[in-house]
Amino acid sequence: MDIYLQVLKTSLAAALSWMVVTSVLNWPYPYFAPLAAILTVQATISESVKKAWQRLLGTIGGVVISALISQWMSVGALSIFIVIVAGMTIGSLLHLPAYINSQAAVSSLMVLAFSQSQGYALNRVTETIIGSVIGILANTFIFPPNSVAKAEQDILILSKKASFALKKLGWALQKKNINVHSPLVDVEDLEKNTVKSIHSIQLAHESLVFNPLMTKKCRRLTEITEGMRHLANISIQIRGIRRGLLALAEDFPESLELNKLKVAIDSAADCVEDFGINLIDPSKDISLRLKTRISQAMTAQSDCLSALLQFNSLILSREIGAILTDLHRILEEVSSDKWENR
Asked: Is residue 165 a contact partner of residue 245, using CB atoms and an 8 Å limit?
């Protein structure tokens, strides 16, 4: 649906730009205005402002270069070659995007070709300004971009994938099938989803810049950004648990603490999923369930640690102890005071 809204906004902005220039300024063919509007409407308003500014720079640069050269040379192959080289070179020296360099070249060529028309250069700059402004206004007030909802969805998915990855590791532990293959693929996918969620948060922040209609979303975005920080740390701890289980897999003992370790892993997994749900769709019931599960997970970790003390293996104690440390850190991430008091 978002892509269709973007198409609609872009089309409306282009049509309005043409209408304003033709009806208000009475210019017959204001191609630069709708073109500027089309290129200005972007995924976020801040990006629209950036694109509008860059496009205006390219247009002005091309106009100035062409106006200077047209004073000395008539339209021809050599003059066209010179204005395009000059326009694109200056853009490169100013480190402008490649498409802006092309814009400068197009503006130079158009102004050079119609240099005999009085006021043509100024008209092209005016059209670009009008089209860019209308593009920004259309992006601001017509279905304004809001990436906060998308960020919330990605974070909720991330918390469920993190929970599933932990449970998958617990299942592999129970089956004594810890290896570099199937049960660990979920952890690798978790890393990709963490990066994706971080990107969604960044895009959500950008969507609120220069957006006067979305100020109420800023507080909400601050909350989920903090929650994302916790989930990113949880992802790191899960990778640590994977490494610990791989080390433990080299010598699986037939002992009780492996079963208790699985219970501790599964309990932490439940806490991670409820943490995500409580973050995105908070309620008293979910908050209470999260607190209960955190308490159960702490008990499970204590039971596992107590069972571990019955064995004299230093290697076993070190490997399981490292896993329990990572599990405890996960509980710290989901049970901070900020989230307990929601």
From this structure: no
Amino acid, res. 319? E
Q: How far is the C-alpha of 50 from the C-alpha of 156, rounded, in Å? A: 31
Angle at 61 between CA 60 and CA 67, to 5 degrees: 85
Is the overall model pTM greater than 0.85, yes or no? no
Q: Which of 112, 141, 170 is the last residue of a domain?
A: 141
Model pLDDT for residues 55-85, shown as the tens digit of each residue: 787 778 777 777 777 777 777 888 888 878 8
Q: Which residues contact 157 (CB under 8 A, 6 or more apart)?
A: 193, 197
Domain CATH code at residue 232: 1.20.58.220
